[in-house]
Amino acid sequence: MTQAEGFQRNAESVASHRCEVAEHRWVNDRYKYLRLRAPGPLARATRAGQFYQLKCPVSDDLQPFLLRPMSVYGMGPQPETLEFLYNVTGLGTLAISDLAVGDHMDIVGPLGNTFFLGPEFKRIMVVARGVGLATMAPLVQMAADRGIAVTAIMSARAPKDLMRDEFLRGAPADVHCVYDSDGSSDVDAVEALVRRQLEQHSHDAVYTCGSHRLLMLLQRVLADYPDVLGQVAMEQRMACGMGVCLSCVRLFDTAEGDKQFLRVCREGPVFSIRDVVGEVEFG
Ligand SMILES: Cc1cc2nc3c(=O)[nH]c(=O)nc-3n(C[C@H](O)[C@H](O)[C@H](O)COP(=O)(O)OP(=O)(O)OC[C@H]3O[C@@H](n4cnc5c(N)ncnc54)[C@H](O)[C@@H]3O)c2cc1C
Prior knowledge:
This protein is α+β, with helices and mostly antiparallel strands and 283 residues long. It has helices spanning 91-97, 132-145, 164-168, 187-200, 212-222, and strands at 8-9, 16-26, 31-37, 51-54, 68-71, 74-75, 81-87, 104-111, 113-114, 123-129, 149-156, 174-179, 205-209, 229-233, 249-253, 259-263, 270-272. It is built from five helices and 17 strands. Bound molecules: flavin-adenine dinucleotide. The site of flavin-adenine dinucleotide has 22 residues, from strand 5, strand 7, helix 1 and helix 2. [2Fe-2S] cluster binds at residues 240, 245, 248, 265.
């Protein structure tokens, strides 16, 4: 299977759906969990890696203009349920954080492509940091449902920021936690850990989201493992989320050895780790 064959795209619906807030609570001092009652077959049509554009509520104090992209964190267990896990970081997410149970919210999606999990896969590795946990949580559930073993490398500022339970949601995994606070999340240390795991167990695929540094590290490592699929869900800032405004384009390598700009919202957000062209660092 080639990398290109690994990507799956669902039929997309750019219609807006009115949902009801069924649950909304803080998970820690920065992240909130949001459960929406979504109309009809929306949840069943949503796949791991896809995202929605959330319409932020407007108040006298907060008037966010654009919709905000959010990965789907879970679908179910009840039918007609969509879950999100989000970092309250700026104007839009602050406005969303004010929603009360029973309030309504308009969402657009599901948007974008999905992670690929081959039917023959026996073990995968997920390398997550920050909001990447929310994006990859459904992938971990999917692997657990199919009996695929998971090696999870979780990176956070400190143990209190890790959200291990929120990530695994009861799924079995060999978990390795690394932290900025004790230096174990340093690039060299994580690279050694990833290489050790790939040597110890045969992995079919490696997935990541949430850190450009981890992405570049995995790109380096995977150059030595040509048979291992590598996929990343990119979190580029975006406006329309539907491929029109081109604000989320990123540079990627092509199979022909050229470079091309692709829209993260439309051709992604899931891409081959090998194809990402690293961000230029200034200064
Ligand atoms: C496909 C996709 C899926 C995402 N999934 C999640 C998710 O599941 N949970 C979650 O918490 N966040 C997720 N994000 C990031 C989320 O969209 C932003 O944090 C949010 O739009 C910020 O809006 P704001 O108005 O609160 O903050 P702003 O005032 O717009 O920005 C506040 C801070 O957040 C940073 N930021 C803004 N947009 C992004 C972005 N797209 N990616 C990374 N940093 C950003 C800004 O640089 C700034 O530092 C996702 C982004 C994309 C593109």
